[in-house]
Amino acid sequence: MEYSFNLYNALAPQGICLTLKKMLSKFSKTPTVLCIGSDLSVGDSLGPVTGTMLKEQLAGLNCYVYGTLAKPITAHEVKYMNEFLRATHPDSPIIAIDAAVGIAGDIGLIKVAPTGIKPGSGANKELAMVGDASIMGIVAEKSVFNYSLFSATRLNIIYKMAAIIADGVSSYIIESLQKGSWGNEVNIFDKKSG
């Protein structure tokens, strides 16, 4: 089941946190977060902006975040990341975060699903699915001119959505680490975030 949260809903971060708890309860390892996107287009920067915020919020904790403004993971690199993540973090659930297109009325919605995502599908790219759970921010209307709409997306919307997603994901990870939900974590400040 997919859940949606509006970027103007003050409880959206808590909703994302609770949804992730429900969706990822079967996993026993700390999740790895993969933020997909590019800093070359405002509309496609949701992933890297979120990743940068998460790195700051989770600094010093025993978890890994891939895809930031400094080191973005674009849709082209996902095919390599899928293999890398499974080899490096074999038992960790992957939370994939990306921008998406949708109908005009859905712009500003943050959708959380218990399945992976296919990066680049809004731009008609055929790429492999990634993630055990996904968070998608609807940033533009789907049309034949997706790239131009991605470029016309307001940075303010991207920034607000990224802050909500980062708050929800970091709350989920911090609460779970503190409660020892993933078993072997004794001290949540063991290791720097990756």
Describe this structure in words.
The longest helix has 25 residues, at 155-179. By secondary structure, the chain is α/β, with parallel strands linked by helices. The protein has a six-stranded mixed beta sheet. Helix content is 34%, strand content 18%. It has helices at 12-23, 46-57, 78-88, 146-151, 155-179; strands spanning 3-6, 32-35, 64-66, 94-102, 109-113, 133-141. Mean pLDDT is 86; it is low at 184-194. It starts with a strand and ends in a 15-residue tail after the last helix. It contains five helices and six strands; from the N terminus they run βαβαβαβββαα.
Quick synopsis:
With 194 residues, this protein is α/β, with parallel strands linked by helices. It is built from five helices and six strands, in the order βαβαβαβββαα.
